[in-house]
Amino acid sequence: MSSVPDTDISGVGLGLRSNHYHYIESRKPAVRWFEILVDNYLNKGGSALSHLQQIRQDYAFTFHGVGLSLGSTDPLNKGYMRALKDLIKRFQPQRVSDHLAWVSVNQRYVHDLIPLPYTNDALTHFCQRVSEVQDFLGIQLLIENPSSYLNYKLSDISETDFLKAVVDKTGCALLLDVNNIYVSASNNNFSAERYLDEIPIAVVKEIHLAGYEQQDKFLLDTHGQRVHVPVWELYSKALARFGPVPTLIEWDTDIPEFDVLAEEAAIAQRLMDHTCRVPKQPLSTRRDPR
Known about the structure:
By secondary structure, the protein is an alpha/beta fold. It contains nine helices and twelve strands. The protein has helices spanning 21-27, 47-56, 78-91, 120-137, 159-170, 178-188, 192-197, 229-242, 258-276; strands at residues 12-15, 33-37, 60-64, 96-99, 102-105, 108-114, 142-144, 173-177, 204-209, 212-214, 219-221, 247-249. It has an eight-stranded parallel β-barrel. Mean pLDDT is 91; it is low at 1-5 and 278-290.
C-alpha cells in the first residue's frame, strides 16, 4: 500500500491538518511522521481521504482519536470502532491512541475530554473497555493523560497510579502529554516533576507537546499556541527520564502556517538530540520561542 518502510517512528512529528495538505504534497517537507486525528477521516470517501492516501506514500502515520469515549458508561460505539478498524487496516499507522476521559453521555457527544474520578469502580470499568477495544482492533492502544481543572472528591487513587494500573491490567501503553501534565499540575497544585517520576519508563511510547492559554486563575489547554517555556523545561526532564520517545507537536486551533509548526518541531528535536545523545556542538541558551 505504501512506500514507507515498516519501521517504527522516531524523532519529532507533526499533527496533519487540512490547511497544510497542498504544502505537504507539493513540498514534501522533512518531517519524520504525521499524526492523524482519526475522527476527521472515518467516512468511506471524500477528498480528505484522498489527501491522506497521497501523503501516506511519503510519510509514516500515527492515529489519535477522541471518539472512543473510554471512560463513559455509554455502550462502546461499535460503528465508530468498525470505521476505525477499517482505517487502521488501510493506512497501517505505527501507533493508535485515545484518552483517559469520556466524551459522551446517553449517546450525546460533548466535544470535550472530561476526566474521570479515580476510583476502583472507574478503574475496573475503564480497563474493561480498553481491553474490549484492543481485542476488537487487534492492536495495542496508547492512553493519553488528560488536562484537568479540578479534583473529584470521590477520587481515592492518584492519576499516575490509575494509569499504571490500566497498563498492568490491559497491556496498553501510554501517550504522555507533557503540556497536559504541566496544565493539570498548575491548576491542581501538584508537582509535575513528581508525576513524571511516578510513571514507569518502559510504558511511555509517545509524547505530546502543545500550547496552553493563561486565564485569570488557571491554565486552559487550548493547543492553539507555541509551546511555552515551562513545558519545554518539563519536556527536557521527560526526555532525561524516558529517553528519545517519539514526540508530537500538537496544534488544533488557530492553525498557523506550516513553517511555524516546523520551527516548533525543530526545537523539540534539538532538545531530544541534546538530552539523549552527546551533541557535536552545545545548544544555544534556551529561550521562549514565542
